[in-house]
Amino acid sequence: MSLELSAPPQSEPACADDGVWLECIDCGEQFAPFEEIHYTCADCDSLLEVRYADAPTFEDFEGSGVWRYNAALPFEEGVTLPEGDTPLHEVPRLREEIGVDSLRIKHEGMNPTGAFKDRGMTVGVAVAKELGVGRLACASTGNTSAALAAYGARGDMETLVLLPKGKVAAGKIAQASLHGARILEVDGNFDSCLDIVQELAGLGEVYLLNSLNPFRLEGQKTIGFEILEEHYQDYGEYPDRIVLPVGNAGNTAALYKAFRELVASGALDESEVPTLTGVQAEGAAPMVDAVQNGRDEVERWDDVETRATAIRIGNPVNAPKALPGIYNTGGTAVAVSDDEITDAQRQLAGAGIGVEPASAASLAGLRKLRASGEIGADESVVCLTTGHLLKDPDAAFEAGGDPEPVPNDTDAVLEHINDGNDTMAGRLAQQLSKVADSSALPAIVGGGLGLAYLGYRALRSDDN
Q1: Would the pLDDT of 276 be above 80?
Q2: Quick one: pLDDT at residue 459?
Q3: pLDDT at residue 444 greater than cutoff 80
Q4: DSSP E strands, 108-262
């Protein structure tokens, strides 16, 4: 099988079920999608892709949400909350500051559990029910566990999540716990958690719903469909470039698959495909290392560290699918420091868009590549932000500052709020002037974050 952008469509094999089958990206072996469970190729152990007899066109898409794109999905409907239809924000001030022709933010943090993972999970859980499995499982840096737990609860299925001990943001653990998942903390990193889950899946104990599962990426590719549709509808053209954070590389692979399918149907010309640009944290950048050295394979990093916990991954399983997506669209990959991520997170917060640290990596990468001239001033760019600010309340509270004590007196309060930089405008100016201050995370956080955080602390405190 070819992962070339303009690969010709495949004829439907005998193993197909209603025009759907699984196919190895290396040896081309094909498998029935719903008779047995396949995560990787039974012949060569390479990654699998979901294939369809008919490639989709934009005219095939009707309705709303992820399942609007059911012409390019295994089923017509699934276990839904619902998900998708996330906003594509204009950010004029950031566009001017960074210096590009146009800039939009696709905020996937507005999905039901606060992250893009919901798109993949609505499809993955639907497939699990079709296969008749009993227990769902994943390894996670946090967002996958929250989505698995929520969609498992929605589908009335048992869920198990393995997390690296001490490496997952509190808000994400709270989500998985409240949705009823059984949570195991492993004394290791994400990659070791995934190794264990894969072994459990191989023993038939669980149904694995990490992005190694090819059906997960089917839901995630709808991000690509949405970006193209929304951008064209609003601005009469497709974006030149999409910049996105990279952890396990599932979104890079998924967006590339969406574009390949549209090219195969003739709905999208190859010249109209956006350039894919991946961004990783400097302390967890195996994909960047591969791209900058022109390699077709990623070398595993065993020791990874970044405050952007959602992309703290040293062995991205979807690299064999994602690297062709970067290379074949003329893209690149860049590593950014935690300080640069923090600065970008603060910039987004100043524009009213609250994201967790990993999400801000996309804007940080854009800033870095624009400053170096690798991204031109004439480009139209979409930055993908993958998770909501509320996902990591500890990080936000550490930088948000303490409440200001005032007397129980209106005159005293009035005097206080009008005292120099204590005015709202002054405080905002202070925040924006600290964009380069690496020690702080966004201070612009809503009351909902405080309630979520305090509720979580109340639930978990040993004193209660």
Answers
A1: yes
A2: 43
A3: no
A4: 135-139, 158-164, 182-186, 207-208, 241-245
Q: Exposure of 462 by Cβ count < 10 A (0-12 exposed, 13-18 middle, 19+ buried)? A: exposed
Where is 217: in which H helix or E strand? helix 214-220
pLDDT tens for 328-382 read 999 999 999 999 999 999 999 999 999 999 999 999 999 999 999 999 999 999 9
d(CA 139, CA 162): 5
Rg of the chain taking only CA atoms, in angstroms: 22
51 token code pair:
């294939």
Same topology, domains 88-115+217-393 and 117-212? Answer is yes
**Is domain 117-212 in CATH 3.40.50.1100, yes or no?**
yes
**Class of CATH domain 88-115+217-393:** alpha beta
The CB-side HSE value for 212 (13 A sphere, CA atoms) comes to 26
Domain boundaries, the chain: 88-115+217-393, 117-212, 397-458
Which pairs count as long-range contacts for 366-375, CB under 8 Å and 24+ apart, including other chains? 366/98, 366/100, 366/103, 366/243, 366/277, 367/98, 367/340, 367/343, 368/334, 368/336, 368/340, 369/243, 369/277, 369/332, 369/334, 370/98, 370/99, 370/100, 374/332, 374/334, 375/100, 375/241, 375/277
pLDDT in tens, 171-215: 899 999 999 999 999 999 999 999 999 999 999 999 999 999 999
Helix ranges, 236-285 (H): 250-265
Integer Cα distance of 99 and 279 in angstroms: 19
Look at 376 and 432; give whichever has higher pLDDT. Answer: 376
Question: Which is more confident, 439 or 33?
Answer: 33
